[in-house]
Amino acid sequence: MQETLTRDGTVPLHTQIAEALRIKIQNEEFKEKENLPSERELAEQYAVSRMTVRQALQKLRHEGLIYHERGIGTFVNNRKIDVHTRNLNGFSEEMISLGLKPSSRVLTFQRELASDEVMQNLQLGAGAEVFYLERLRLADDEPMAFERTYLPAYLFPKLEEFDLTKNSLYQVLVENYDSRMHHAEEVLEAAAATKRVAEQLGVRTGAPVLVVRRIVFSESNQPIESAHTVYRADRYRATFYLSKNGA
Amino acid sequence: MQETLTRDGTVPLHTQIAEALRIKIQNEEFKEKENLPSERELAEQYAVSRMTVRQALQKLRHEGLIYHERGIGTFVNNRKIDVHTRNLNGFSEEMISLGLKPSSRVLTFQRELASDEVMQNLQLGAGAEVFYLERLRLADDEPMAFERTYLPAYLFPKLEEFDLTKNSLYQVLVENYDSRMHHAEEVLEAAAATKRVAEQLGVRTGAPVLVVRRIVFSESNQPIESAHTVYRADRYRATFYLSKNGA
DNA sequence: TTCCAGAAGTGGGCTAGACCACTAGCTTGT
DNA sequence: ACAAGCTAGTGGTCTAGCCCACTTCTGGAA
Hints:
Two copies of one chain form a homodimer.
Chain A: H1 13-26, H2 39-46, H3 50-62, E1 66-69, E2 73-76, H4 91-97, E3 102-113, H5 116-121, E4 129-139, E5 142-152, H6 169-177, E6 183-192, H7 195-201, E7 208-217, E8 223-232, E9 238-243
Antiparallel strand pairs in A: 1-2, 3-4, 4-5, 5-8, 6-7, 7-8
Chain A binds a DNA duplex through residues 9, 12-14, 38-40, 48-52, 54-55, 57, 68-74.
């Protein structure tokens, strides 16, 4: 049973193998035997070295899709479907994955001097300018969150020309500035809605809200965005997946 | 400059190398040149194969300590210190890492029939029994959180004999049942404090609180614990680190 | 029938090479 | 002075093996 891989060097073999296995896992093709073929079997099937197979498996293990048991084999992690694990996506992508229709109402969008807090978050020098974007985020046309976003102005020239009502901010950044987010720090806390936020969200003043502060970094660890999002507690909850050591 | 490793097979070489490099990074020994030696140099220094070095580096890269630039080299990620990233630790460990003194007041500790929700969370069958542990968690002798914990009774016989006022629950589980947590799912939401919780936490009824629901799994993906923790919003915030794809 | 030793199979670890794409700096020719 | 091309060095990928610790199964001895 020879599986075929593209060997023109455009896509690494271990990536192709990982993708192929990921699909088979999603289709539950291993469910009968409850486990994957051994590393040596896979190496033979794909006609690659065992090290390459191990590299592919490691990727899947890191994602929590599979786990190894020494001396026994490799197994599919049949944990309940990730209803929605919070990851490095923007609001739009997140709502879509939840089956909701995202939209935005831009309340403010201007270039301004960075405040001390923003300067520190974005690691900017004194006098640096930022884009300030204030949006009401809707899901199925109902208010879901109130968001304040700061972006270093020098990184995104002419950002003001884009329509952020329809487009995902992250999409604009990737497509027009080739700016990809790589990792982020988030701080979550509970708070009571202030008068202004309560009015926008359509809840009473003092109602509980979930506040998420997020700083997004590029691959070279440069801060790209600093955001402050206030979610309605009755409509939103954040799900995380935690793992030990990561190995 | 030959670095020495223990080669008796007790600790994998790549682990030793990763540890050695981690220490050097923390001591900022690479700061002058701003980068690490090349993989080939490291292989020579430690007298191992380059693949082994790469394995060590991959571990560090996963932790966000370093990053690679193709054709250039490997660099230390000089991001600000992780003040406190939420990870798979219990309350006690978390408070200690924050520099606070943890303690507990056990309000309830009994064996009981699992409710439907708990049954589902812990993947138990009908009629299964669980330990129910209700604790007020203190930091520096001030109320920080109100916690309800459920554990499958069949996994932890005689759990009732331990003093959970002084000891960390996770410590008891590891030391006495060899039960190690491997990963967890957490759901965070904001809420208003109920009367009972408010009294225990010493806040007014309706004050905002951060509710964390956590299910902890073993390495073989078996649910070990289901917890529901209500944190005072004015004393606690949760910090997470998010990364793309994990590669 | 029971028990135990061995064999076979598994993932974990490691080696000593190889070729590739990419970057930066140097050299050389204009 | 400048640009083009070369070269050395880097991480990315891959190979074809090897030994180890561990589990499970199986067949033979007690």
